[in-house]
Amino acid sequence: MRLTTSAAICLFAALPVIATAQSAEDALEARHGYMKMLAINMGKLSAMAKGDMAYDEAAASTAAANIVALTQYDVPSLFIEGTAEGEAEGSEALPAIWENPDDFATKFTELADAAAGSPEAVMGGQDNIGPALQKLGGACKACHDDYRKKD
């Protein structure tokens, strides 16, 4: 009886740890998915800007609109404790994220600011993509410089 009671107590005590492990895993997977969606849309714009892909005004505007939509997501909430590089497999998030959470959140606000108006800005010809892409890329780089493990 005592063994069963002790085992039950240990199991219930471990549940938050198990739930946190699952949450950390889910958060990391969601972050990777989010960054992949950004990369796909940035890649389309970049390919058009370079001439590697034919300029398509509707596709360019859609890619930019997708980026705008992605910037509305609360991405900092996916950076939970225990998911830094070295703590979670596949993470490139530096501990500086948790040391400077306000600045980290500001970087995502700056990405949203850079994305604002980009669906219209990329219309009208291939030459219009570059300036919008520079603003977006600059915002991405600002965050990666401070908060992502260098390759």
Automatic annotation (TrEMBL):
Domain of life according to the entry: Bacteria
Kinase as UniProt keyword: no
UniProt signal peptide: 1-21
TM region positions: none
Keyword terms, alphabetized: Electron transport, Heme, Iron, Metal-binding, Signal, Transport
PROSITE patterns named among the record's database cross-references: CYTCII
Gene3D superfamilies, alphabetized: Cytochrome c/b562
InterPro entries reported in the protein's UniProt record: Cyt_c/b562, Cyt_c_II, Cyt_c_prime, Cyt_c_prime_subgr
Stated name of the protein: Cytochrome c
Natural source organism: Paracoccus maritimus
